[in-house]
Amino acid sequence: MSDGHAEEPRRDFLIIAAAAAGGVGAAAMVWPFVDQMNPSADVLALSTTEVDLSAMQPGQTITVTWQKKPVFIRRRTAEELATEQGVDLGSLPDPEADSDRVKEGHEEFLVVLAACTHLGCIPKSDQGDYDGWFCPCHGSHYDASGRIRRGPAPANLVVPPYEFTSDTQILIG
């Protein structure tokens, strides 16, 4: 006949080992579900876009891609800067100062998502009543600061997160 006290440590060990194995098994089952929620490699590769601005001339607009979305980058002329900085904010449907839409020290460069804030159409550059962008789909007019001036769009063109890495390079994202 065996002593009941000698089997208690063995039983405790079996309970702890079974619980540990169950915990490892549960983690192994949950991990694929959690991992599939991470962004795919192609999205991570597009999470930032580096753009060289050195070849841009004043008055020129280029279109680049960031996160599979078009982005307008406009090098504004001195006349455009003076005009946009002098706009009465009270006359704007979505009041926002030009200085809040650009980076200090690089005011000539404007970076905005190329999607009309009405229904997401891509506006045409250097057109419209305010020499900025015009969305021909529904008639929204944006100025050279990307601010809505007339039409059904409810808001200004969106300024994506970006920073200057040098005087002629920006990193979007």
Summarize the structure.
This protein has 173 residues and is α+β, with helices and mostly antiparallel strands.
List keywords for this structure.
173 residues, alpha+beta, Rieske Iron-sulfur Protein, 2 domains, four-stranded antiparallel beta sheet, three-stranded antiparallel beta sheet, 3 helices, 27% strand
- Overall spatial form: elongated
Distance between the termini: 74 Å
The CATH homology group name of the largest domain: Rieske [2Fe-2S] iron-sulphur domain
- Total domain modules: 2
Classify the secondary structure makeup into a structural class.
Answer: alpha+beta
**Helix and strand pattern:** HHEEEHEEEEEEE
Tally of helical runs:
3
Task: State the CATH architecture of the largest domain.
Answer: 3-layer Sandwich
Widest β-sheet, arrangement of strands: 5-6-7-8
**Radius of gyration over all CA atoms, rounded:** 28 Å
The residue-averaged pLDDT reads 88
Helix content: 25-40%
Unreliable spans: none
CATH class categorisation of the largest domain: Mainly Beta
CATH topology of the largest domain: Rieske Iron-sulfur Protein
Please summarize the sheet with the most strands.
Answer: 4 strands, antiparallel
Topology, number of strands: 10
